[in-house]
């Protein structure tokens, strides 16, 4: 039986190239992952628009940015970066909190929001190169934030300085009291008083230097010049 199927009919359709907008989104997600110190994944099913706006604002104030992408595009970006283990979390309506600063502060903001909005599900995330599940993200939220650590550090430095200042003030106060008492007493305690001069005590005489008479010196006799005499007769 003759095969009437043409080559064009038997050829399988070639895969379509990815759309430019999807390529741009994958590149954006890949760049955000690379620039973030941590990425926390959540499910926002059942949260209304107003609550989402409040959550975005609180996360932004804590140093995070809350973004929603299609899971398929996030999987492509994660695969390009070689990150393994996040694929299982990319199920359902997923929003990602990209952290550029304090991861503990962003995790704390998510935990605080969930207390009032039970629909928020914290799935897990990645911190540096380490994957985290929900319990680890909640444990991260219990850590002091960067601002709290700085405040404690500043308080630790301030306490010794305040103690030193109080000690110096006490020393200076005691020194001032002692100095005032010394002034009121008219001098240092136990110091002998200077004896006042009496009229019976004659004043000390100051010897005056006398000039010695220098003996007069007579001028030495000078020998007269002898004129030569001519003893020979003419």
How would you describe the overall organization of this protein?
46% of the residues lie in helices and 12% in strands. The protein has a five-stranded antiparallel beta sheet with strand order 2-3-1-4-5. It folds into two domains: 19-143, Alpha-Beta Plaits (2-Layer Sandwich), CATH 3.30.70; 145-184. Strand 4 (121-127) and strand 5 form a beta hairpin. It is α+β, with helices and mostly antiparallel strands. 19% of the residues are buried. The chain is elongated, with a radius of gyration of 52 Å.
User: What would CATH call the class of the largest domain?
Assistant: Alpha Beta
Overall tally of domains: 2
Give the biggest beta sheet: 5 strands, antiparallel
Can you list the strand order of the major beta sheet? 2-3-1-4-5
- List low-confidence stretches: 1-13, 206-234
Q: What's the end-to-end separation, in Å?
A: 194 Å
Shape: elongated
| Cα-atom radius of gyration | 52 Å
Query: How many distinct beta strands?
Result: 5
Query: How is the CATH topology of the largest domain named?
Result: Alpha-Beta Plaits
Mean pLDDT: 75
| CATH architecture level-2 label of the largest domain | 2-Layer Sandwich
Give a quick set of tags describing it.
disordered N terminus; alpha+beta; disordered C terminus; 234 residues; Alpha-Beta Plaits; five-stranded antiparallel sheet
List strands and helices in order, with pairings.
Layout: H1 7-10, H2 20-35, E1 38-43, H3 49-62, E2 64-68, H4 71-81, E3 94-99, H5 103-116, E4 121-127, E5 130-133, H6 134-141, H7 146-185
Antiparallel strand pairs: 1-3, 1-4, 2-3, 4-5
Helix pairs in contact: 2-4, 3-5, 5-6
């Amino acid at each position: 039986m003759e095969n009437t199927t043409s080559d064009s009919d038997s050829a399988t359709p070639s895969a379509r190239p990815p759309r430019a907008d999807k390529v741009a989104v994958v590149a954006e997600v890949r760049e955000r992952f690379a620039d973030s110190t941590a990425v926390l994944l959540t499910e926002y099913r059942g949260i209304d628009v107003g609550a989402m706006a409040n959550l975005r604002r609180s996360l932004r104030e804590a140093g995070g940015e809350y973004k929603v992408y299609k899971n398929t595009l996030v999987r492509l970006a994660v695969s390009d970066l070689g990150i393994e283990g996040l694929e299982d979390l990319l199920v359902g309506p997923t929003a990602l909190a990209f952290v550029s600063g304090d991861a503990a502060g962003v995790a704390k903001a998510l935990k605080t929001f969930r207390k009032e909005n039970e629909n928020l599900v914290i799935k897990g995330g990645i911190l540096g190169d380490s994957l985290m599940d929900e319990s680890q993200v909640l444990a991260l939220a219990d850590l002091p934030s960067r601002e709290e650590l700085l405040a404690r550090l500043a308080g630790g430095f301030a306490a010794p300085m305040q103690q030193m200042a109080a000690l110096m003030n006490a020393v200076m106060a005691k020194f001032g009291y002692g100095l005032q008492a010394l002034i009121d007493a008219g001098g240092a305690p136990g110091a002998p008083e200077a004896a006042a001069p009496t009229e019976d005590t004659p004043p000390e005489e100051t010897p005056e230097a006398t000039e010695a008479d220098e003996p007069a010196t007579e001028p030495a006799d000078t020998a007269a010049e002898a004129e030569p005499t001519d003893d020979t007769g003419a």
